[in-house]
Design a protein that fits this description.
The chain is α+β, with helices and mostly antiparallel strands. The protein is built from eight helices and five strands; from the N terminus they run H-H-H-H-E-E-E-E-H-H-E-H-H.
Length: 159
C-alpha cells in the first residue's frame, strides 16, 4: 500500500532542472558579462602576463547544453569581456555542466573530456587547442575555496 502511494507522487526534478530555473530568469547577455567578470577576477595574474593573448579580438563560445547557456567571450585591452550574443564565434566549446565543472575543478584532463567526446570543439581548431592547452595548465587552487566547495557539491549532485 505504501509503495502504491509513493508511486503516485510526482517525480522529483533532477538537479540540472533545478539549476536551470534561475538561468532562465536571467537575460542571456547578463550571463556572458557575469562570466567575464568572474574570470577576470580569478585569472588576474594570468591576464596581467598576457597568457590569453591568443584570444585577443577572437570570440570564444561556451555552450552548456543541459542548462541552455550560451556564453560569448573575447579579450579586449587585456581583459575578458562579453561579446555580442549574435557574434560569430571563432571557436565553440560545448558540453554538459558536469563536464565543465570537472574541467574547472581539474578533476578531469581536458584531453580525456575531448577524446571521449564529453566536450566538443568546433571552429578554429588551432585556437581551440590553444585554449585547451591553457586550461590544462590551470591549477585547481585558482578557484577560491568556497567556489571549489560549491562546484564539488554540484558535481556530486550531477553524478
Amino acid at each position: 500500500m505504501v509503495s502504491h502511494l509513493l508511486s503516485q507522487l510526482p517525480a522529483l526534478p533532477r538537479p540540472v532542472q533545478l539549476l536551470r530555473l534561475p538561468v532562465m530568469v536571467i537575460p542571456g547577455a547578463v550571463h556572458s558579462h557575469g562570466l567575464a567578470f568572474i574570470l577576470n577576477k580569478v585569472l588576474t595574474e594570468t591576464l596581467d602576463h598576457n597568457e590569453l593573448g591568443f584570444l585577443d579580438g577572437r570570440i570564444l563560445q561556451i555552450s552548456v547544453s543541459d542548462l541552455g547557456l550560451d556564453y560569448r567571450l573575447t579579450l579586449r585591452n587585456g581583459r575578458l569581456s562579453a561579446a555580442a550574443s549574435h557574434s560569430q564565434p571563432d571557436v565553440r566549446f560545448g558540453g554538459l555542466l558536469k563536464e565543465f565543472m570537472l574541467l574547472a575543478l581539474n578533476k578531469e584532463d581536458p584531453d580525456t573530456l575531448f577524446f571521449q567526446r564529453r566536450l566538443q570543439l568546433e571552429g578554429d581548431t588551432e585556437l581551440g587547442l590553444e585554449i585547451k592547452n591553457f586550461l590544462f595548465t590551470l591549477d585547481e587552487k585558482i578557484l577560491p575555496w568556497p567556489v571549489r566547495q560549491a562546484a564539488t557539491r554540484v558535481v556530486q549532485l550531477l553524478a
